Amino acid sequence: MNIGVIFAGGTGSRMHSKDRPKQFLEVHAKPIIVHTIELFENTQEIDAIVVVVISSWIDYMNELVEKFNLHKVKAVVPGGKTGQLSIFNGLEAAEKIANGEDSVVLIHDGVRPLITSKVIVDNIESVKKNGTAITTAPAKETVVLVDGENHVSEVVDRTRSFTAKAPQSFKLADILSVERNAISEGITDAIDSSTLMGMYGRDLTIVEGPYQNIKITTPDDFYMFKALCDAREISQIYEI
């Protein structure tokens, strides 16, 4: 079974939205999180989807599931105090859905709607072959490492530099085992799942995705996504 865990448990303070979290801001009469979920809904290889949202928005999310016919969404669960704990809640829901079946889980940001079905399928195939899949994009600029006094300690070879994005995908049993070990040791705020798996010595394999696979965090990101949606809509009428 292949299960998408779409998490959007944050409030999005950097977006400065007035009355709703960023994942529920609308573009073309559709909330950002629905744009994201539809990518998984419309990918044949995905069997089920779990959505993690702020507890006070669960009822609204369920309304969206019905309104937009998101039939693969099998559970909507509340987020935790941190991003890691929100993901853990989603993974436990996925475990119940899998019901003992060996499964691949694709962990994805609810505000990252610019991937493709190919990226999703490539993640699944990589997990089946290698055990993991971290979606990346090659670094466009040179990365430097600095010490505590802001001195450059290393200039990283750009040809070996990639930016970790999402989805980040694993065997469900493996990521749950690492999550449970980490939580038992008091680790509850890892920056992302790939970092957590790396902390526990798991081998990680990359899958390349598109440059535009941005996480919509700031107003600039929102306007970029809207512009891309506008361009796609125009392309249906005019050649651009």
Numbering strands along the chain, what is their spatial order in the largest sheet? 3-2-1-4-8-5-9
The total strand number stands at 9
- Shape estimate: globular
Biggest sheet descriptor: 7 strands, mixed
Counted by DSSP, the helix tally is 7
Poorly predicted spans: 12-16
* Radius of gyration (Å): 18 Å
The helix-strand sequence is: EHEHEHEHEEEEHHEH
Oligomer: single chain
- Please give the alpha-carbon distance between the first and last residues: 39 Å
Verbal overview:
- The strands form two sheets. The protein has a seven-stranded mixed beta sheet with strand order 3-2-1-4-8-5-9, with helices on both faces. Strands 6-7 form a two-stranded antiparallel sheet.
- Helix content is 36%, strand content 22%.
- By secondary structure, it is of the alpha/beta class.
- Mean pLDDT is 92; it is low at 12-16.
- The chain is built from seven helices and nine strands; from the N terminus they run βαβαβαβαββββααβα.
List keywords for this structure.
single chain; seven-stranded mixed beta sheet; alpha/beta; two-stranded antiparallel ribbon; 240 residues
Brief summary:
This protein is 36% helix and 22% strand. The protein is of the alpha/beta class and 240 residues long.
Task: Give the helices and strands, then pairings.
Layout: E1 2-8, H1 32-41, E2 48-53, H2 58-67, E3 73-78, H3 83-98, E4 104-109, H4 117-130, E5 132-138, E6 143-146, E7 152-156, E8 162-171, H5 172-184, H6 193-199, E9 206-208, H7 219-235
Parallel strand pairs: 1-2, 1-4, 2-3, 5-9
Antiparallel strand pairs: 4-8, 5-8, 6-7
